[in-house]
């Protein structure tokens, strides 16, 4: 195949842009305006500027890391073992799994709560959210549907994610414009001291990174690109372009949504929403009583959580499968298939149980999720670039590598600081 023709930005590449967008736009985005707007409008603008290179260069580095594995088509767990050795690679793979597993549990809970709340508040069902029978039926139907789509394969997951993301983009944009008449200047007038300003930026990094994270879809994307073309130089350019386009869309839509929410609320209202521990759309619905927001809120939440759920679950299965299969000697394709089925079944049961029990694990997602994401996206690839001879060619991107590493270390350090501060 002609190289120039192979590097055309294809429909499939754009589908991956949309899938990566959908992976990032999950529950974290619905809480981001609350945390990001606490120190005023200026901090939101600065966050918009620093998050663009951070997300683009960080996820690109992870894509290069996976692409450079010894075997074409390797997933992230195989790449970790190739570049970092079996023992360390296995450890990082398990770390990756222990980030993704609670996120998948949380998304199961989030989907169940969203549908249950819609049925009670919008459809007028006279039943409690905590009714075990009610929650059990909803959880069983939703989680079964998600797992059924998952086992249909990567192509089906990609199509369903795309189907959820397109209306999500439209609704997020409409909601952001809908809030414009209610914009006020109170958050613009908030000017903390420089010390408080930078401290807030630093402490917001884990939530910011979590809200824009789409690392679970990087490995499936690189694997898919490997099946489309065997030329790794061309795939590398595609990874860069896909990541660049994804980050453009993410920053444009998400930060416009954040800005619109922050300008529509006072700092005191943002603090109240934080204390109530509810998504920003739920806060708007409760405060305004608007029928439009009451209808659109659950729709946004369902599409956001659903689109992100699939790729996080795909990554979760991949991470655990890589760690388990690595311990099996003389493995056959039948054994691998059986292990994969056991893993999916175990995750299926655990997600149903958690969705019924309804634990509050958002704080756990933010406190543990932020640093693990930072280590895997920002620190691990850069460490590998400068310690693994096969990755030497990526050392020439000096500024990009320094930026990614510094932002990763800042994200991890902010969580450690908050833990010690209590």
Keywords:
422 residues; mainly alpha; 81% helix; globular; disordered N terminus
Q: Count the helices. How many?
A: 18
- Cα(first) to Cα(last) distance is 59 Å
Low-confidence stretches: 1-5
Shape: globular
Strand content: under 5%
Spatial extent as radius of gyration: 21 Å
Into which percent range does the helicity of residues fall?
over 70%
Order of helices and strands: HHHHHHHHHHHHHHHHHH
User: Structural class per helix/strand content?
Assistant: mainly alpha
Largest sheet composition: none
User: Averaged pLDDT, please?
Assistant: 83
For the secondary structure, the number of strands is 0
Walkthrough of the structure:
This protein has 422 residues and is mainly α. Helices cover 81% and strands 0% of the residues. The model is unreliable at 1-5 (pLDDT under 50).
């Amino acid at each position: 195949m002609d190289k120039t023709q192979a590097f055309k930005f294809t429909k499939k590449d754009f589908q991956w842009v949309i899938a990566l967008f959908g992976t990032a736009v999950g529950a974290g985005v619905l809480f981001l305006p609350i945390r990001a707007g606490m120190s005023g409008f200026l901090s939101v603008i600065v966050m918009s500027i620093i998050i663009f290179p951070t997300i683009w260069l960080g996820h690109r580095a992870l894509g290069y890391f996976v692409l450079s594995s010894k075997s074409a088509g390797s997933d992230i767990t195989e790449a970790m073992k190739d570049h970092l050795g079996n023992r360390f690679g296995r450890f990082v793979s398990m770390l990756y799994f222990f980030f993704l597993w609670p996120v998948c549990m949380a998304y199961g809970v989030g989907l169940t709560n969203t549908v249950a709340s819609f049925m009670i508040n919008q459809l007028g069902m006279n039943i409690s959210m905590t009714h075990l029978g009610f929650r059990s039926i909803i959880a069983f139907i939703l989680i079964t549907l998600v797992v059924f789509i998952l086992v249909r394969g990567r192509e089906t997951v990609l199509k369903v994610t795309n189907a959820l993301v397109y209306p999500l983009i439209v609704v997020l944009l409409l909601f952001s414009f809908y809030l414009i008449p209610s914009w006020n200047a109170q958050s613009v007038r908030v000017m903390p001291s420089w010390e408080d300003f930078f401290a807030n930026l630093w402490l917001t990094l884990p939530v910011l990174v979590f809200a824009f994270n789409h690392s679970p879809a990087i490995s499936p994307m690189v694997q898919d690109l490997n099946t489309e073309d065997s030329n790794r130089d061309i795939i590398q350019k595609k990874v860069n372009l896909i990541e660049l386009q994804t980050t453009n869309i993410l920053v444009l839509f998400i930060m416009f949504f954040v800005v619109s929410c922050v300008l529509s609320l006072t700092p005191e209202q943002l603090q109240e929403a934080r204390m109530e521990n509810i998504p920003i759309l739920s806060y708007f619905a409760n405060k305004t009583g608007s029928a439009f927001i009451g209808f659109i809120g659950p729709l946004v939440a369902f599409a956001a959580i659903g689109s992100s759920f699939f790729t996080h679950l795909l990554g979760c299965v991949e991470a655990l499968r890589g760690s388990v299969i690595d311990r099996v000697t003389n493995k056959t394709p039948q054994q691998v298939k059986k292990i994969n089925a056991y893993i999916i079944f175990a995750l299926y049961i655990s997600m149903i149980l958690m969705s019924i029990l309804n634990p509050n694990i958002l704080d756990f997602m933010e406190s543990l999720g932020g640093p693990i994401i930072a280590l895997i996206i920002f620190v691990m690839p850069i460490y590998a670039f400068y310690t693994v001879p096969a990755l030497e060619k990526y050392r020439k991107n000096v500024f990009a590598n320094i930026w990614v590493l510094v932002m990763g270390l800042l994200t991890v350090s902010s969580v450690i600081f908050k833990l010690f501060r209590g």
